[in-house]
Amino acid sequence: MRFIYKLTTLLLLTTFCSNNLFSQQNEKEILEQGKLLYKSEKASWQGTDMFLDRFPEKSKLAGGYFSYTDKDRNICVFYDRDTVPKTVAVFSFDDTYLPVRAQIDTVAREFSDYEKDLYSIRKEAMAELNRNPVFEFYNYTSFNPVPLIYKEKKMVYFFTGPKKGNVVIFGNDYLITFNDDNTVENVEKLHSSMTPVNYSGNSSETNSLHAHTEDDIITATDVCVLMLYSPYANWEKHYVLSKTKVSVWDCYKNEFYIIDRSAWEKGLNAAKQKK
Q1: Is the pLDDT score of 5 beyond 80?
Q2: Which domain holds residue 68?
Q3: Which residues form the signal peptide (predicted)?
Q4: How many structural domains comprise the chain?
């Protein structure tokens, strides 16, 4: 279980070394999954904007979309409402996500085998959302399913997205894992609550944090949200506090490291005394 809040003062923590209590493999997978989620969401953001702007007539035919990364391309697929859907429009981006460098294909085609799996687990995840009481719904928000196949593991992450601007939402996120036949294996609630954090992009608010009541480090969903929103919020670092350690996310390098919480608190107190 976790709760989340905002850090409103600048934290001067520059003298600590990483004290990793989790395996390197675990940290590596969190970072890799988080960055894949970011690539997917960024492609969805850009693809949706371009789809609605350039093909308003086709948008009426769309039954949904999903995104994924294929080698060096980030692909957003819009599909129709048929029982066996075909593509309506496919947008392919490089890592700049610049519209002028996007490749667009509006010729209808069947899904590839990989896309069929993404569509299938996304569809099943939406059914699970509607039938499983573990999911909590909040006003002025919407759920966003992000299908992901990572090292042959099939999963769908659910993010809670804001319906208002200048807001970052941490929490109320979920992970559904799937069996080989695309049936639901497990549903996990990643944070026990949701807190919207307003931001203005002010230079005086360059850091933020949230806390985990269990002894967990930063999650893949945290990584994705921070990569998406920190450029707009003007954050430099984000801190994820647990009982014994602190995950420090560098918003410029898009990396994190782990430090001991007691050392973090000593450094914070020392910084306050210097003011």
Answers
A1: no
A2: 2-274
A3: 1-23
A4: 1
